[in-house]
Specification:
The chain has 267 residues and is an alpha/beta fold. Helix content is 34%, strand content 21%. α5 packs antiparallel against α6 and α6 runs parallel beside α7. The structure holds adenosine-5'-diphosphate and magnesium ion.
Length: 267
C-alpha cells in the first residue's frame, strides 16, 4: 500500500508545484493521474521514487517512510519502486535480456553486473516475465530492433525485475499509437492484480484513463481536485481539471483529421 500525506514540493523559491497532496493506493489497484501539462503529475511520481526531494510531507510504502531516507537505506527503498517511462529509457545497443536484467542492478554486486554473472534465479525470472508479456522470443534481439509497444513491454519487465512494491508509470502510452496504448494499459491493469501491486499511471488521455483504470485522480496546479471512479468522472470534473487550460484529447480528436490522419502524439 502506498500512503501519501500532505505532500508539498517547491522547486527553489517558486510557488509550490504540489500543494499538500493526500493519496492512498491499495495493492492491486490502478490509479490514473490526469491533469493538464504542468499540473504536477511527473513531480508527484518523482517525489515517490525520490528523483526529486519532497519539500515536506510523508510517503509511506507498505508502512516504510520514504521521505527521510538517505544513502544505503534510500537505495534499498528505491529498488522497491518500479518505474515505467514515456520514452521507454532502454539502452538501444543492448539486448532485450540485458535491458531486462538491468532491473536487478539494485540487487546484484557490481562485479556480477559488469561480468554479466546474474544469478540463475534472475535469468529465470526474466524469462518468465518476458513470456508473460509476450517478448521472450526477442530475448537476444537488440532493444532498438523492437517496435514501440514491444519496447514498452521491455520497460515494464525491467521494472518488474526489481520485485517492486509499487509501479509508477509516467505517460507510458504517450509515445505509442492508440491500439498499442490500449494493449499496454490492459497489461498494466492485469499485472496490478496478478502481482498485487499498486500502480500509478500519469496519463493525459482521459478516455484511456476511464476505460483502463478503476480510479481517477485529477490534479490542477498541484492540488487534487478529483478522486473517484471513472463513472463519476463527468464533464464537470473534466472542466474543473482542464477548464481554461487546454483541450483534452477527446476534444482535440473532433478536429477534422489532418493529411497524416490520426495524430499519434509523439510529444
Ligand atoms: N526540475 C524542475 N525545476 C523547476 N521547476 C520544475 C522542475 N520540474 C518541473 N517543474 C515545474 O513544475 C510544474 C509541474 O511540472 P510537472 O510535474 O512536470 O507537471 P506534469 O507532469 O503534470 O506536466 C511545472 O510548472 C514545471 O515547469
Ligand atoms: Mg509530466
Amino acid at each position: 500500500m502506498l500512503e501519501i500525506s500532505n505532500l508539498v514540493k517547491r522547486y527553489g523559491h517558486d510557488e509550490a508545484v504540489l500543494k499538500g497532496l493526500d493519496l492512498t493506493v491499495e495493492g492491486n489497484s490502478v490509479v490514473a493521474i490526469v491533469g493538464a501539462s504542468g499540473a504536477g503529475k511527473s513531480t508527484m511520481l518523482r517525489c515517490i521514487n525520490r528523483l526529486v526531494e519532497p519539500t515536506s510531507g510523508s510517503i509511506k510504502l507498505n508502512g516504510n517512510e520514504l521521505v527521510k531516507l538517505r544513502g544505503a537505506a534510500l537505495r534499498r527503498a528505491r529498488r522497491k519502486i518500479g518505474m515505467v517511462f514515456q520514452g521507454f529509457n532502454l539502452i538501444d545497443r543492448l539486448t532485450v535480456m540485458e535491458n531486462v536484467l538491468a532491473g536487478r542492478l539494485g540487487y546484484v554486486s557490481l562485479y556480477q553486473a559488469i561480468s554479466r554473472r546474474y544469478p540463475p534465479a534472475d535469468i529465470e525470472r526474466a524469462f518468465s516475465l518476458m513470456e508473460r508479456v509476450g517478448i521472450a522470443h526477442y530475448a537476444n534481439k537488440r532493444a532498438d530492433e523492437l517496435s514501440g509497444g514491444e519496447r514498452q513491454r521491455v520497460g515494464v519487465v525491467r521494472a518488474l525485475m526489481q520485485e517492486p512494491e509499487v509501479l509508477l508509470a509516467d505517460e507510458p502510452t504517450a509515445s505509442l499509437d492508440p491500439r498499442t496504448s490500449e494493449q499496454i494499459m490492459i497489461l498494466l491493469q492485469s499485472l496490478a492484480s496478478e502481482l498485487s501491486l499498486p500502480v500509478l499511471i500519469n496519463i493525459h488521455n482521459v478516455s484511456q484513463a476511464k476505460t483502463y483504470t478503476e480510479r481517477i485522480v485529477g490534479l490542477r496546479h498541484g492540488k487534487m481536485i478529483f478522486d473517484g471512479a471513472p463513472s463519476d468522472f463527468n464533464q464537470d470534473a473534466l472542466d474543473a481539471i482542464y477548464g481554461g487550460i487546454e483541450a483534452p484529447e477527446e476534444e482535440v480528436a473532433e478536429v477534422p483529421p489532418t493529411a497524416e490522419g490520426v495524430s499519434h502524439d509523439q510529444a
